[in-house]
Amino acid sequence: MQARRFAVIVEWDPADEVWVTHVPALGHLSTYGETRDEALEQTRDAVLGYLEAAAKERLPIPADDVPAEVVEIEVAAS
Known about the structure:
By secondary structure, the protein is an alpha+beta fold. The protein has a single domain, classed as Double Stranded RNA Binding Domain (2-Layer Sandwich), CATH 3.30.160. The protein has one helix and three strands, in the order E-E-E-H. The protein has one helix spanning 36-56; strands at 9-13, 18-23, 29-33. It has a three-stranded antiparallel beta sheet with strand order 1-2-3, with helices on one face. A hairpin with a 5-residue loop joins strand 2 and strand 3. The longest helix is centred in the middle third of the chain and has 21 residues, at 36-56.
């Protein structure tokens, strides 16, 4: 089995008090967990499921080498 790498955005959701992940290359596939590690493990499982389903349905699998970048912007708010 070939190892694949995907960029994952990890953020804390203070309203729900969970860590949330997003995988941009896979249609922003998203998972969550009570800890950062749990959220990332859930993400690994979800990505594997996505890849298995795509292979079964013979759907194209997005490239995993597309760079992702998280940037901060400043917005003046009143």
